[in-house]
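Sequence in, structure out. First:
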Amino acid sequence: MAFIVGILYSKNSRFMSFRSSFRIILFILTIFFSTISKADNKIIIASTTSTYDTGLLNLLNEEFYKKYEVRVQVLSLGTGQAIRTAKDGNAEILLVHHKPSEIEFMNNGYGVERHEIMYNDYVLVGPKNDSDLCISVQQKLEQIYINQFLFISRGDDSGTHRKELEMWDLTDIKVNKNKKWYLSVGQGMGSTLLIANEKKGYTLSDRSTWIAFNNRENLKIVCEDFPPLFNQYGIILVNSKLNKNLNYKDAKKYIDWFKTAEVKELINNFKAKGKQLFYYNYN
């Protein structure tokens, strides 16, 4: 910009009137600061891998930008890591799926507004040669434990990992990552499914990632449609007091937009392989 302004007073422009020069400088400054302002119109969402990997957040964020000209950057993380990121004041929005952790986050003053926004469910997947009827999730996990069948755990403190541990608690079985039958991989959902498929083991997956996952020639759903596998997603507006640089104004716009009929339609119509992945349930 200094270079352009300098031109106004160069030898070739010395006859330019002061008024004309001032107007051009004002015009250049307007463009310059407008560019800075637009660059600052950005918010960060710390979210789960399932909302990002399936493409849902890309769709929603593109529509939000069209409407408000606010860029949305997504940090695709496990729920535990996403919550820690928000606690550190490094994200304006939290979109995760572990209600007890979300409530604790709110009670400790890290969030100012929380809404249950959509849901799907978890499925227990395993080898295709498993022909046993699933009577309950607990029964299936007990069967895995008794027979020492290989179980692949995400082991990454994600919402899915936390749900898995809750499922083991229902059986009173104390899982130990040092056991050969229980493999804790510390990976995201897609990588965990890849390992389960390769080793023909069992794992817990959110249904949306399972539907979108392609490399599953050795796997199938072995247990589903039981109440403990319900998977609720919550969206939280992070407390701006955690970081003075948080863009609270635009984050609030995003939260309010998420509660509209427009977003309801976008979420309910979002599909992979012809199947609906998420179900909007804000009310």
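Second:
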Amino acid sequence: MPSPRDYVRTAIVVGVSALCIGSVQGRVAREHAHVKETSDVHLLPPPKEVVTLSLGYRAALADVLWAHVLVSQGLHTFERRRFENVADLIDTINELDPEFRDPYLLSDSLITLQIAEADRADIDRTRAILERGTRNRPLDPEVWRTAGQFIAFIAPGTYLTDPEERAAWRADGARMLARAAELGGDAGNMGWSAVAGAGILNRQGERDAAIRLLQRTLAVTEDEELRERLQLQLASLVGEAKLEAYRRRQTEMIELTLRDLPFVSRSTLFVLGPPFDAAYCAGGAHADDRRCALTWKAWAAGSDEQR
């Protein structure tokens, strides 16, 4: 059991400690007020080594690092200084969890939209991360659209100076926007991305690619305003006569499929293919008839002759 002397000793130690802290507290506070962080130190090893250090908890560690990135970005913005390690951290997160979606969608903003203007190395790293996202999430239209918008519009319009390089980036971005439109249908603004992508492809001399993009988007969209815009753009490329034939064929396809399966979406109908009359087509005697076509391509090939 402690004796009174022990209590006295404890009180003396606490008192001396308080005096020591008080003697330096004011000076330390003044120094702290004047000292500011000006640079970051990246303490993590290369991404592949971080995967090993995760001990199998790759997704969990990726979540922790992503939370650190978001918080640190806010602190750096508040302190009005550049977040120098953000690209390194995103590379590590991608290595830990290649299918983690959010880092791909926000990487262009996190890396390039900072207090200090982005340099060429930042632009190249951002493109590399976005292209990695399209490889790791090949069926995600949002990832394709984010990559396409940065490569087709943001980078060439803001950071690149060489005209030939700008044209090459815009063409690559347009193809990504086209892929986003194919995957996304009417989700979000995917269809409108096709309008922008087709315009770039046409200016780059890839007229056939622009026509195919407009036709594919027109086939799946149910947005009437977008359909009108796509038809006007398509008419300027193929001419009114060909556009009218295309409209007629699209109308016939829609009417035919809606009679057969009125409860499914237009995109699903085009995936399923045209209605097939098994009894009529048995034996192969009517193999050339539209009613026996197994694909929409075969059906459209016979549409003009068997209307």
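Remark: The chain has a mean pLDDT of 79.
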